[in-house]
Specification:
alpha/beta, about 600 residues, single chain
């Protein structure tokens, strides 16, 4: 029974479905799967054998470590279903080729999108700033699909007018979030000839077919068990195609559209198969390959895109190029959930908050810190509690940088600082920070160490003193604040500072004006608080009574000083009275007031 079962059923399955390049594997390994199945005392059906065999095939051989430049970073590569971290190896030294799935521009982007783009922006900055890797990032923009056509028809405008509005809005949203622009943005409608040529090559290789309607479908069965590298258990029952595809003209339910035949009142392009437009999955494969060729270092997107979108991208590229591995690494970000909502944020579920709405309530730095304290591939919960935590972190960081600046300039006095302890902790945090980033971009762990250093520094600086004769340690405080400021800037958290490199002439002028204004206020306030310079002559009054009288006379002056401080605060400039002699000012972040 075992001998018969080992040979006949599996050979018939393999002969009908395997990609020619896989025959060597299949002639060698089918008995392993069948022996394990039979030991369980089961006699599976042919379809069960096929499904399990394909999953085991994919799990065992879905990734091959590339040769090239080892970055020293280990990542969770979605091509490995065992989730074991693997070394990030680039094809070329210090250069990473990266394709990112961009938005479908039929509506405003929401914070679920924002969390993914910000988290991958952080990874991009880590590669560049901490590991000296030049990132060439291409982002694909979907500017033609079913949703866009439907929305344009509902709005009674052309699809190109609709997509321009939302694409421009997307760029502005990313700028507001301080997300670096991609090296190149590619629009589907600008690459239709390349997409058509890509589809034709897949047909020529035997992995796609044209239907009588003029649509073209990828043939999943012809491609074989190599299909499904990124899929999960939903692959057994899920379909790889898009909604509204004509199932009757497919050879297999899992086949998916590469080219969609034109429908009445829809935009179309001419092709060898008739008028139509590209399917969703093919556009990314063709655009990425048009820029990077037959192979790619990194591909990113939300984990909801793993199946079917990224799974189909892989099949299309490997079917076109007859290759075993197109993209070497797939990195997937976790979902964003609203507190008390079990569903990920999605326009279809109408549980979305737009990026512009969130930036009216919180700053870009606060949202980025919210993303930084959770590892990029973990789910993240958005709510008042988690955002208040981000606000607290932002305040601690900003306060430390401000107090450090004041201390170094001699405007803040405190008890003697433990230089050795601070320098030792700085050295430890430097090493721990890089180690955490090299461990699958673990920003959660990296930020824990950084905040520990900040809290230690804040504790020492807040131990204020009126004694100006004690020993001071401006060097160690400057070293810590410089390091923290560098790390934050490198991660995209950029607090506006009075002496920021690259300040414009107008900013420098504003700084000079504020310095002079605050210094004048300091002088006025110091005079008003010093009763010894009073001109009041009344020998019948005690010194305490004289001081009280002077303070009453000068109260309007002190009120004016306070009003000046409050007026500047409304404009995002905070004055801090460090002592009677010294006052400092700093920029304070405020959420946007306009959508």
């Amino acid at each position: 029974m075992l001998q018969t079962f080992r040979c006949q059923p599996i050979s018939s399955i393999v002969s009908r479905s395997l990609h020619p390049k896989c025959s060597r594997f299949c002639s060698k390994h089918p008995r392993t799967f069948l022996q394990e199945t039979c030991r369980k005392g089961q006699v599976p059906t042919t379809s069960a054998i096929a499904r399990s065999f394909f999953r085991n095939f994919s799990s065992a051989t879905n990734w091959e470590e590339p040769s090239g430049y080892d970055t020293g970073i280990r990542v969770t590569n979605s091509l490995r279903k065992d989730r074991v971290k693997v070394p990030l190896i680039l094809s070329n030294k210090n250069v990473a080729t990266w394709y990112a799935c961009g938005p479908t521009v039929y509506d405003s982007a929401h914070i679920g999108h924002a969390s993914s783009y910000v988290r991958f922006d952080i990874i991009r900055r880590i590669l560049s700033e901490f590991f000296s890797i030049d990132v060439v990032q291409v982002m694909g923009i979907t500017d033609i699909d079913d949703k866009i056509i439907k929305r344009s028809q509902e709005s009674d405008i052309s699809f190109s007018q609709l997509t321009k509005v939302y694409q421009d809005e997307f760029y502005q949203d990313m700028d507001n979030l301080n997300v670096l622009p991609a090296t190149l943005y590619t629009n589907v409608t600008d690459h239709v000839p390349q997409i058509i040529a890509f589809i034709q090559q897949i047909i020529d290789n035997g992995y796609a077919y044209a239907a009588p309607s003029g649509s073209v479908y990828f043939d999943v069965q012809a491609f074989g068990p190599q299909y499904g590298k990124l899929s999960t258990d939903n692959m057994d029952t899920g379909e790889a195609g898009e909604p509204n595809e004509n199932l009757s003209e497919k050879r297999n339910a899992r086949d998916f559209a590469l080219w969609k035949a034109a429908k009445p009142n829809e935009p179309w392009w001419t092709s060898p198969w008739g008028n139509g437009r590209p399917g969703w999955h093919i556009e990314c494969s063709a655009m990425a390959s048009g820029i990077f060729g037959r192979s790619l270092d990194i591909h990113t997107g939300g984990k909801d895109l793993a199946f079917p979108h990224h799974t189909n991208e892989i099949a299309q590229c490997e079917g076109c190029f007859r290759s075993d591995q197109w993209a070497n690494y797939f990195l997937h970000s976790g979902h964003l959930f609203l507190k008390h909502d079990v569903n990920k944020m999605s326009k279809s579920l109408q549980n979305v908050i737009s990026i512009r709405e969130v930036l009216q309530k919180y700053t870009a730095n606060q949202f980025r810190l919210f993303c930084l304290v959770t590892k990029y591939n973990n789910d993240i919960e958005y709510g008042d509690e988690t955002m208040q935590n981000a606000i607290s972190l932002a305040n601690q960081l900003s306060s430390f940088l401000s107090d450090s600046d004041a201390y170094v300039k001699g405007q803040l006095m405190c008890q003697p600082i433990d230089e050795a302890a601070l320098m030792q902790r700085l050295s430890e945090v430097r090493d721990q920070f890089i180690t955490a980033l090299a461990d699958d971009f673990n920003t959660h762990k990296a930020m824990e160490g950084l905040m520990d250093l900040v809290q230690l520094g804040n504790k020492q600086l807040q131990n204020t003193s009126k004694d100006t004769s004690g020993a001071r340690s401006p060097g160690v405080i400057a070293a810590i604040s410089t390091y923290i400021n560098h790390v934050l800037n490198s991660l995209g958290v950029q607090f506006t500072q009075r002496n920021s490199p690259g300040s414009t002439a107008s900013t420098r002028t504003l700084t000079s004006v504020l310095d002079a204004s605050v210094e004048f206020r300091n002088s006025v306030r110091q005079w008003a608080l010093d009763s010894s310079n009073s001109m009041t002559q009344n020998d019948e009054l005690t010194s305490k009574e004289k001081k009280k009288l002077v303070m009453q006379e000068r109260a309007p002056v002190l009120t004016a000083c306070d009003q000046f401080r409050d007026d500047l605060a409304d404009s995002g400039i905070q004055i801090k009275d460090r002592s009677i002699e010294h006052g400092t000012w700093e920029f304070v972040e405020k959420p946007s007031k306009t959508p």
